[in-house]
Amino acid sequence: MNTPQTEYLLAGGGTSINALPKISLHDHLDGGLRPQTIVELADGIGLDLPETDAIALGAWFAEQSNSGSLVEYLKTFDVTTAVMQTTEGLERVAREFVQDLAADGVIYGEIRWAPEQHLSRGLTLDQTVEAVQDGIEAGIDDVRASGRQIKIGQLVTAMRHANRGLEIAELAVRHRNLGVVGFDIAGAEFGFPARNHLAAFDFLAKEFLPVTVHAGEADGIESIRGALFDGRALRLGHGIRIAEDIVIEREDDENTYVTLGPVAQWIRDREIALETSPSSNLQTGAIAAWGDELVDHPFDLLYQLGFRVTVNTDNRLMSDTSLSRELALLSDAFGYDLGDFEAFQLNAAASTFLALEEREELADIISAGFEEV
Which top class of enzyme applies to this chain (predicted)? Predict the structure, then answer.
């Protein structure tokens, strides 16, 4: 059964944000577990937890994640990945993940996760991908049985601090017609540039498998440049530090006059999607150069300048959030309305790693859903 979903309403109109059709591009499988599931899976494998009550455990994750450091933030994943080392654990987590996305109004989601982190109990890389896909398909069946529809694609991820990039890229290509739609690298960004995985990116380019790269979260413009040049990234995971390549010349009461640097210009003009995750960006200190509140986030600047911004959760457990909540927070901070929300979802639809016809179908579903409000 799905966990209860908090209802978020658009200020002024009372419109349910949860009910709006949405697309999730940046959502980590090991960052979206239900606390009760962690408790039950941990009990089954004899794993000690910092808290054994589901509510207390959820609070622990949120507290630990508010460190202001990506490195510290990532340590919470030691707990979640520990209960995702068996076929049963992976299937259950993936199935509930899909259920929870659908309950929040998501009609298409790309779930990213790193198979190399799920091998400690004897599973092979291929077995982990198969287990997750089985869970995804079971979740889709559950959603369909409830009268709704959802599509899901896997983004197979390599850990950027490890040396298995090519092996994981080959894994992704083996499963490209079995649920996998793209490739990602994740983990500690600073000190681990995309070029470390150049062999993987060369292979993926030859195989025409789409790539997104975590960049512009814990490192700046050079990391983003590497994601574009070495990684051939079609999207940027977070990418918000591209704002460092934007110079504000002057502002008046109605306008902001800026100059874009070459990397920012390329990203905007080529419509390379930015997979922003507002709450997570606060927690990890990704926006520290601009402030420590959501209103300081460069999201609105990027949106107003015409960048292809998308809204995501990153890790729903760690940030105690949902896609509806992220939209509500942005609306509160910047005064966004339904038209803005629709623009964000259409940006996401255009940036999925699906075929053109499927992207157009998603856009039609989004527009129709917003027209019904």
Answer: hydrolase
